[in-house]
Amino acid sequence: MDAVVNLCKRRGFIFPSGEIYGGFRSTYDYGPLGVLMLRNVKDAWWRSMVQLRSDVLGLDAAILSSPKIWEASGHLSNFTDPLVDCKKCHERWRQDQIGTTCPNCGSGQLTEARAFNLMFKTHVGPLEDDATVAYLRPETAQGMFVNFLNVLNTSRKKPPFGIAQIGKSFRNEITPGNFVFRTREFEQMEMEYFVPPEDSDSWFQYWLEERFNWYLDLGIEKSKLRIRHHDKEELSHYSRGTADVEFLFPWGWGELEGIANRGDYDLGAHTKASGEKLEYYDQGQNTRYFPHVIEPAAGATRAMMAFLLASYTQDEIEGETRTLLKLHPRLAPYKIAVLPLSKKPELAELSIEVLRPLQNLWMCDYDETQSIGKRYRRQDEIGTPYCVTVDFQSLEDGAVTVRERDTTSQERVKIVELTSFLQSKLS
Ligand code: ATP
Fold it and tell me: Which among 30, 61, 144, 180 is least surrounded, fewest beta carbons within 10 Å?
């Protein structure tokens, strides 16, 4: 864990927010490489959940939202964690995470648990009174429910179909921590899949498998992933069945994503509160019904952390320890680094010529400082799958050396064939 946190800081993936002022309460900023990788995680999700399907549509709903949404959804009364104070050292904890003793001082003297609502409250407009209260959304899901009719009426879809959204969510977590595993501001990737009620069990199973396989396909070893079904007592107020995809974090198993069968809870609750019938009218059968909802809800920032941890590797090359991120090419910040062997102008000129068409297709790095060995190590450490080296021979034979990250094997490739060569490797 420390090695990955350190690498994230040192190489520009993730910085503690407001660091020059001593940091700010478990918030983080994504640096030049982090913003690329986080975007890749989200793109990989969008590709699998929206682009490669014809039954799922996208949405981008507002973050600032009306209290009416949260009242109807049950968040105002139920989106709470049990808060306890240690009577001795006055630290505050989430009771369900600590049990009966204070993790800070070991005292067993804790206050009674009280329900602490996790939603961030603010005011819209210049007046700060009860009528202007708004909330920062604590999940993206409600955006899909309140837009159910808008999407249905504009898309001509019918169940089974889904609405997907990626975006920031905010929760006033009592104890954020474990780096970006639990933060107060984070990004979610959620999809609400609306199905005929009688098909909800089979769709729940379907999405559980799909989502488990997504992490596998992007390179996390099977031994570090598992599915855990929730017990009855653990289920959220809306859920008829939930299972988590969990990852083996350095401190133990932790949730990456929850897949829930929400039944018709949300559409029913918003119908009741708004008076708008959030139903599907089946013309063929001349029937109306509330579709049931299967929801795969993942965290983009948490998934990125898992991909970093899972890909962090140390091996030995020519007697030296090497650190590398064995990231799936889809997730790697840079797909290719173009490295002129020396800073001589004629090599730089050819290198830029090599770089341009590659940049047109992929995020590429360009680096001409230090020895070539050191530059390879730097690229390995940030997970760049391929390095393209332009040397003096390139000026003669119109070819470059392509080095592969994991095996360090090298191959001479003609510049005119380079794009299609890399395309076949990267796809
Ligand atoms: P927990 O019980 O751990 O607080 P949860 O079960 O309430 O989490 P969900 O509401 O199911 O979490 O959220 C869906 C996903 O959003 C989670 O699986 C996780 O990946 C991500 N997520 C939730 N809360 C946070 C957070 N505070 N920081 C980072 N990611 C989060």
Answer: 61
